[in-house]
From TrEMBL:
InterPro entries linked: Beta_helix, Carb-bd_sugar_hydrolysis-dom, Para_beta_helix_rpt-2, PbH1, Pectin_lyas_fold, Pectin_lyase_fold/virulence, SCF-Subunits/Alg-Epimerases
Organism this protein belongs to: Anaeramoeba flamelloides
Pathway per the UniProt entry: Protein modification; protein ubiquitination
Keyword Nucleotidyltransferase appears in the UniProt entry: no
Sorted UniProt keywords: Repeat, Ubl conjugation pathway
A Pfam family matched in the record: Beta_helix
Presence of the UniProt keyword Protein biosynthesis in the record: no
Carbohydrate-binding/sugar hydrolysis domain: residues covered: 58-194, 207-355, 361-494
Protein's UniProt name: Carbohydrate-binding/sugar hydrolysis domain-containing protein
């Protein structure tokens, strides 16, 4: 006795219209064998003690406008290279899951409604590559889509929403493709990828999820191209545990916390993304992460554009970092980073801030037009190397160094500040300035005070109100500099200052 409602095998066909297949001891419909290809329309398949529909051993079949529900195992199970088509079907209330595809399953689901299934709405594994197009997948008890163990799958133009836990889970070398889907209003994370998961995501909208929009961990390597991520309840995208994803050309905005978190030795590539209006930082890098961050537009975030700490060491190349409500880039607590060819401007407090043993390398970067702030602010034992940078037109000072900080500036141009001085070293600040040009300030070129101790070697200090002003027990080494055309003196010293000054041409200063 088969204990099956309908069994079609060995090339069988037939048409089944408006049938009710229910309460069978095993499956409602079983299709098996090559060339098996019956058609079912407007059928109800429910209450069966295993799957509602079980298709295996290279069988096919067409299901149109059917209702598959309240089955004990799943609504539909497809295995063994089988290739059925489901069109405009409702698949719901599966007591274990909605759709299972494994062992090289194929098939397609189009314009279906998949909802209220207990475990996964859709599960693919073991090289299955089923197509899901224009479906609504919603209101499940656990996970909407679970792809694992080298599963694949093509998901296009689906709506995936309102799951009690996670929307999409990818793991164990699974590699599905998601194109033009909308993934939103899930109580957990929108997309979770771990244990060497992969996946390709293009032109999706992923938003308003209860935790993160995307979380990637455990050496996973997905690709995200031209997606839109917004309004996550926590940070939008989290990358950790040695993962190496690619994000290219995405919009990331309006997260309740950070736009990107990169941590735990992760090494992502972020290229040509627009990262803005997140309520904390645009990109935060820490915990020994690296990463390649290139040609992004990082702007209007409520704190910093980029924050690097705790041995984070990313490469930032050719980014535009502007108009953030606190700072452009902050590096602190043993953070590092290599910043080359970036344009950092218009941030509210400062362009680059370094503190607490932060030690970045910054080259060929423009830092300018912080109209209410400082270009570079280094304090509380910060360091760092600036090479061939241009720092200009900032509202306060160009560079401020204090509290035992000791950065190096090589071949930099610091110029054109409208109100304040260009370089301000004070309160035990140090620093090396070598072969820099310090030009065009209506105030001080370099001010050294309150036990500041910088080393100025081979610089040109020109066309300032005062070239170098040293006061309040400050010192330092001033050697081989040229002081030219400064209106109120080349070097002015007062109030107990004792610098070491040697071989500085002082030319055409008015006083």
């Amino acid at each position: 006795m088969l204990s099956v409602g309908i069994w079609v095998n060995s090339g069988g066909g037939g048409k089944f219209l408006k049938c009710r297949i229910h309460n069978n001891k095993k499956v409602g419909i079983e299709l098996t064998g090559t060339c098996t290809n019956p058609a079912f329309k407007n059928c109800h398949i429910y209450g069966n003690e295993s799957s509602g529909v079980f298709i295996h051993n290279k069988a096919s079949g067409i299901f149109k406008e059917c209702n598959v529900y309240d089955n004990t195992l799943t609504g539909v199970t497809i295995v063994d290279q089988s290739d059925p088509n489901f069109v405009k079907c409702n698949i719901y209330n599966g007591k274990s899951g909605g759709i299972w595809c494994y062992d090289h399953a194929y098939g397609s689901f189009q314009d279906c409604h998949i909802f209220n299934n207990k475990c996964a709405g859709i599960e693919l594994k073991t090289s299955s590559n089923t197509i899901f197009r224009n479906n609504i997948i919603e209101r499940g008890k656990a996970i909407a889509i679970y792809v694992h163990d080298k599963g694949k799958g093509i998901f296009e133009n689906n709506i995936i929403k309102e799951y009690n836990q996670l929307a999409i889970v990818i793991k164990s070398q699974a590699n599905p493709t998601f194109t033009k889907n909308e993934i939103y209003n899930n109580k957990g994370t929108g997309v979770t990828i771990f244990k060497e998961g992969q996946g390709y995501f293009e032109n999706n909208k992923i938003h308003n999820n209860g935790e993160f929009n995307v979380e990637i961990t455990d050496n996973s390597r997905p690709t995200f191209i031209k997606n839109t991520f917004y309004d996550s309840k926590l940070s939008s995208i989290v990358i950790g545990k040695q993962s190496k994803p690619l994000f290219n050309g995405n919009q990331v905005y309006s997260a309740e916390n950070h736009g990107f978190i990169i941590r735990e030795s992760a090494n992502p590539t972020l290229r040509k993304n627009d990262i803005h209006h997140n309520k904390f930082t645009g990109i935060i890098c820490y915990d020994k992460c690296t990463g390649f961050i290139e040609a992004n537009n990082i702007h209007n975030n409520y704190k910093a554009g980029v924050e690097i700490s705790f041995q984070g060491n990313p490469i930032l190349l050719g980014n535009r970092i502007s108009d953030n409500l606190f700072a452009g880039v902050t590096v602190h607590t043993y953070g590092r980073g290599q910043l080359t060819g970036n344009d950092i401007y218009g941030n509210r407090s400062f362009g680059i801030g370094i503190r607490t043993f932060g030690d970045p390398y910054i080259k060929s970067t423009q830092i300018h037009h912080h109209e209410r702030g400082t270009g570079v602010f280094i304090f509380n034992r910060g360091s760092g190397t600036f090479e061939s940078c241009t720092i200009f037109s900032n509202g306060k000072v160009g560079i401020e160094i204090k509290s035992k900080s000791n950065p190096t500036f090589l071949n930099c141009v610091i110029k054109d500040h409208n109100k304040s001085g260009l370089v301000y070293v004070h309160y035990h600040g140090k620093g090396w300035f070598k072969h820099c040009k310090i030009l065009n300030s209506p105030s001080i070129g370099i001010e050294i005070k309150t036990k500041g101790q910088p080393r100025l070697l081979g610089n040109i200090i020109q066309n300032c109100k005062c070239g170098i002003w040293i006061h309040d027990k400050a010192g330092g080494v001033i050697k081989d500099n040229q002081l030219i055309d400064n209106k109120e003196g080349g070097i002015v010293m007062e109030r107990g200052s004792k610098p070491y000054i040697v071989n500085n041409p002082i030319i055409k200063n008015e006083k």
